[in-house]
Design a protein that fits this description.
The chain contains 10 helices and no strands. GO terms for molecular function: peroxiredoxin activity. This is Carboxymuconolactone decarboxylase.
């Protein structure tokens, strides 16, 4: 799997370490999990339910929503992580993920998926930016109330995750292999948490 790490040239990137002293040099949210395991557990449980639980949206589609919102929030670590997860689970792979990121209107996704991604993009701007017209369009395209609900919750959750990761100044690897390897984990987000906690401090 090829993972592009291109990012807008005007992206503001921090240099140096995170703003607080962590217990490991793991990038992004993984170091934060080790710092505060009491909050890491419910955060990973939420991710497991939203992105891996039983749902009429595929795991790839849900990861695509997470990646799209993370791109809108310009969160490098979360975008590259969930882009890799989505690419592994979508037949069109990274090509589709990047098309959605760069031009949602022209991306070759279903009408339902486009409508849900538009709702996710509205949530990223602010909860009240979601309109009745957007919800009606999603329903007309075949989205269920559960799919609309989970789209909004995934988008809202990833606004939180993105701000958590970037608000504490954590680093994001520019090595595509790092994200591709993480995407191969099969045990879910709770396994990611366990793996992070087992890494030597």
């Amino acid at each position: 799997m090829t993972l592009s790490t291109t990012w807008p040239d005007n992206d503001e990137r921090r240099t140096g370490g995170p703003y607080i002293t962590l217990k490991s040099d793991e990038p992004g949210i993984r170091g934060l999990f080790r710092f505060r395991p009491e909050t890491a557990l419910p955060l990973n449980q939420l991710c497991d339910v939203l992105l891996r639980g039983e749902n009429s949206l595929s795991r790839g589609e849900r990861e695509l929503i997470a990646a799209y919102v993370s791109a809108l929030n310009r969160c490098r670590f979360c975008y590259f992580t969930h882009a890799a997860f989505a690419a592994l689970r979508l037949p069109e792979g990274m090509t589709l993920v990047e098309q959605v990121h760069t031009d949602l209107e022209a991306a070759p996704v279903s009408d339902k998926m486009r409508a849900l991604l538009e709702i996710a993009g509205a949530v990223q701007q602010g909860g009240r930016r979601v309109t009745a017209r957007q919800v009606a369009a999603a329903r007309e395209a075949g989205a269920t109330d559960l799919e609309i609900h989970d789209t909004v919750l995934i988008a809202a959750a990833f606004c939180m995750f993105n701000r958590y990761v970037d608000g504490l100044g954590t680093a994001a690897s520019d090595d595509p292999d790092h994200y591709a390897e993480r995407a191969q984990l099969t045990g879910g987000y709770l396994a990611v948490l366990a793996d992070a906690q087992l890494q030597p401090a």
